[in-house]
Each structure stands twice: as C-alpha cells, then as structure tokens.
C-alpha cells in the first residue's frame, strides 16, 4: 500500500505531520504495519487534515522524535 507521505515533514505540537497528517507513531510504524492498519490510518486522514490544516506551530521531524516513537512502538503489541 502506498504511503501518504508528501515529503513535507513538520510536526505540530501534538506530533502530527503537517504534510501527510499522520502521527509520528503512524509514520514510524508504516513500514511494518499490516494492510488493514494502513487502510485504517488512510481512512482517518481527510478528517484529520480538515481539523489540523492551517496550524502555524510545526517543527521539523527530528531524529530524536523518530527514536522516541520507535521506543514507544517497541512496547506495543503488533497489528
């Protein structure tokens, strides 16, 4: 399944990417997520975009944020 990434990564204060509107955890887990989980993520993006678009507080996706998300996801059950 194709990633919704638009290569304009910038996280808001709640760690949602203002390019693709996925949460950092969803971005990090995308490569290993099941097709069902990917479809679930994709299904929620339009509503999330409508809610988040226009936010002015965003930061570049940092290596530290990525590592924090990986550690958080490592303790969760697989999809």
Task: Explain what the structure shows.
The chain contains three helices and two strands, in the order βααβα. The protein has helices spanning 24-29, 35-52, 63-74; strands spanning 11-12, 58-59. Strands 1-2 form a two-stranded antiparallel ribbon. The two termini are 15 Å apart. The model has no long low-confidence stretch (mean pLDDT 86).
Relevant terms:
79 residues; mainly alpha; 2 strands; 5% strand
How are the strands of the largest sheet arranged? 1-2
Number of strand segments? 2
Structural class: mainly alpha
Q: Provide mean pLDDT, rounded.
A: 86
Shape: globular
Strand content: 5-15%
The rounded Rg comes to 12 Å
- Major β-sheet, in short? 2 strands, antiparallel
Number of helices: 3
One letter per element, helices H and strands E, the order comes to: EHHEH
Give the % helix: 40-55%
Flag low-confidence runs: none
Would you kindly provide a brief summary of this structure?
This protein is mainly α. The protein has three helices and two strands, in the order βααβα.
Write the layout of secondary structure elements.
Layout: E1 11-12, H1 24-29, H2 35-52, E2 58-59, H3 63-74
Antiparallel strand pairs: 1-2
């Amino acid at each position: 399944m194709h990633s919704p990434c638009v290569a304009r990564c910038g996280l808001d204060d709640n760690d949602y990417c203002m390019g693709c509107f996925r949460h950092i955890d969803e971005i990090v887990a995308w490569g290993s997520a099941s097709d069902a989980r990917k479809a679930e993520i994709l299904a929620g993006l339009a509503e999330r975009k409508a809610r988040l678009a226009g936010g002015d507080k965003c930061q570049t996706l940092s290596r530290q944020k990525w590592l924090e998300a990986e550690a958080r996801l490592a303790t969760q059950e697989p999809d």
